[in-house]
Design a protein that fits this description.
- The structure is a homodimer.
- Chain A is of the alpha/beta class.
- The first copy, chain A, is built from 13 helices and 16 strands.
- In chain A, helix 1 packs parallel to helix 2.
- The two termini of chain A are 38 Å apart.
- Chains A and B meet through helix 2 and helix 4 of A and helix 2 and helix 4 of B.
Chain lengths: 377, 377
Amino acid sequence: MRFLHTADWHIGKKLHGFDLIQEQKDAFDQIKAIASQQHVDAIVIAGDLFDRAVASEDSVSLLNQMLMELNLKEHYPLLAISGNHDSAIRLDTGSYWFKETQFYMQTHFEDAFEPVTIQDTQFFLLPYFQPQMARNFFGDDSLTKMDQIMAKTVELMEQKFAPDKKHVLVAHFFAAGSSHTDSETTLEVGGLNPVPVDILTKFDYTALGHLHDKDALKQPTVRYAGSPVKFSTSEAETEKGVWIVDTEPYQVQWVPLRPLHDIRILEHSFEELTDPALYRTIPDEDYVAIRLTDTAVISDVMNRLRHYYPRIVSLSRLNGRETLAAKDQDVRVNMDPQALFDSFFEKMTDQKPTEMQEKIVRESFAELQRGGSYEAN
Amino acid sequence: MRFLHTADWHIGKKLHGFDLIQEQKDAFDQIKAIASQQHVDAIVIAGDLFDRAVASEDSVSLLNQMLMELNLKEHYPLLAISGNHDSAIRLDTGSYWFKETQFYMQTHFEDAFEPVTIQDTQFFLLPYFQPQMARNFFGDDSLTKMDQIMAKTVELMEQKFAPDKKHVLVAHFFAAGSSHTDSETTLEVGGLNPVPVDILTKFDYTALGHLHDKDALKQPTVRYAGSPVKFSTSEAETEKGVWIVDTEPYQVQWVPLRPLHDIRILEHSFEELTDPALYRTIPDEDYVAIRLTDTAVISDVMNRLRHYYPRIVSLSRLNGRETLAAKDQDVRVNMDPQALFDSFFEKMTDQKPTEMQEKIVRESFAELQRGGSYEAN
């Protein structure tokens, strides 16, 4: 069979205050067209359909419309899971009815072990889950790390493998060795141990969601689809698209999506930026991240630049104070939680934490780590 | 055919901070049992399924479970509309799939004119709507009053009447001549003109939602089902239940629901209330509204009474200052918006509004009334 693998739609997502609904609609239309041109037998959506647990009415209406078109109008079987941005309970609404038309919206950890068979393939749909759910399900409190949990999970799935079928895992997590972009929340990605990729080679294909760049992981049979739309300036250079996967013979093919409005990083002086030779080449509706190379102070710079670039999403100065602040932030990304707390405390109070305060924080982190709700790498 | 008429489930509703989820589950189980005993062919839910536009995850999960049981497990056709408490858009999620199993969740004004036929009956499902939706639909800006709008609406529905069928309207509004209880927001009920009942006699039966007491309206073929659970102390004496409606020959039958935990109004002195002869007769889980008859000050009265009545939902003094305040409130219910504003302004600022301020308010009300978003009776 042949299926399309997409993920991380994040319906309702905003880019620095700009609504991306037009871009998301356009990407959806392209995905629908690709599904038709490629004659796929099913569509996989690997989590994070919404950007927020409580999506706006507009977002709810848009996603409902999209899923209806794919499943009820175009009659594609749909295989979807909830991601960490979705409310599993809200996304579950209607799921018992969806099954009647081969729309499998899977939001329960425990249902991941009942594969959905479509043509020659068994799909195991594993939604985003908290380690505690796995501990409850397996009745094993020693499961604190994602590698242990996934080893047990895959082991149980293997017992359900029909020998004459192909086996595809659909999941939403951070796979070991992946790189990531700014639009995935750093703390989320770093908060759970990564899943070692070698566990996943039991499957003929693993359709992942969570990271927004298809190149975050380079594995022949374990792939992130990435988001269909660029969600941050760090994704300015990444190509968006979908995977078309053939199960027999196995083959994957990348089909790119053309951005309706692109994100552009402009590293120039104020003089260059206000030169028609440059600004006339940039469509008004594109999103622009400006890195100003000037060293001198420029008054009212944001408002003056908006005149040429109406959709500025960020403005930084390569040679100014902001650059130092940004570097400072880069350092913080790699701090351990204790050091991060100390740095935050000092920044907020202009004092170092007392010994007693440090002790409370240290013990809290230790307790969280034992409980497994927070698992530092 | 025979159908069950219920309404105003308000899943997620709290009674003075007390969660009513147990009461709602219990009422649901009783409704399901009645449907089975009475061998009904369909179940009508006339709006306000949720208490809030954005329901909690627990509420979403509970309603999903209830609807699934009725439609997918027990195989009843379901005819439901959105009420003023529901978010029509959120409640619409899944509705295109629901139809496949005769679950009609109708949230769009314009779809009210496509009846659903079950056995010998055409059901017209008219969700709660804003007058502007009707003006847009009919392309007629002169429609500002509910009586005009409903006259046009019923006229168009009549054109769809199949002569060999019975005709049932399911709707959610305030019918003229109805009395109401405190759990329906006064401003909502008063904010729209009432719908004259004689317009509705075109239908063999009108299954209404909105008001929480079945006796709010006394008409042979136009009925409120009321809420299945008591939602305010003003409903302490009302009987909750469902209507069982036979279309041929026409017959309605009231089947009461037994409250899991009742609401009781106790009008006594402190001494009487703390007498075992009284408090031992009141189950701990019942909700108690106390009207204290003492005139003397009693210290820490609420905490002391909670010892005997753990679920006190209100405490007032028949002979104290509180009574005067309550009477004051009763007067306000019947004020027109302008007088209500003046009273509010005076209460907040201890001054009467100036002429200029009065003018602004008067003009604003007038403008709202022209626009039809606010229609004073």
